[in-house]
Amino acid sequence: MDNSEKYFQAKKQVGRIKDFYRHLTVYSIVIISLAIINLTTSPQYLWFLWPLFWWGIGLVFHGMKVFNYMPFLGTNWEEKKINELIEKDKNQNR
Fold it and tell me: Where is the 2TM domain (predicted)?
């Protein structure tokens, strides 16, 4: 991989990190807004916890993917699987 490819990959990664932080910011603003609305209109039922939980799970997976912490189906897995399929195809075409 030459320097231009490394630069391109690094730039893509920075973009993904930036998108994650944007996602985190929107999540925080929306959840705080929902909590305020919930606590002022119907404090007896804390419905804002549902989006906090489910969207939070999505945010965690987004962060895991962006920061390359995917113990399953991560970048390394993809590369290994691609190489495995290429080898399998080579062996079948012999």
Answer: 9-87
Token duo for residue 15: 């973009």
Number of domains in the chain: 1
In a domain, 54, yes or no: yes
Query: pLDDT by residue (tens digit) across 24-68?
Result: 999 999 999 999 999 999 999 999 999 999 999 999 999 998 988
pTM beyond 0.85: no
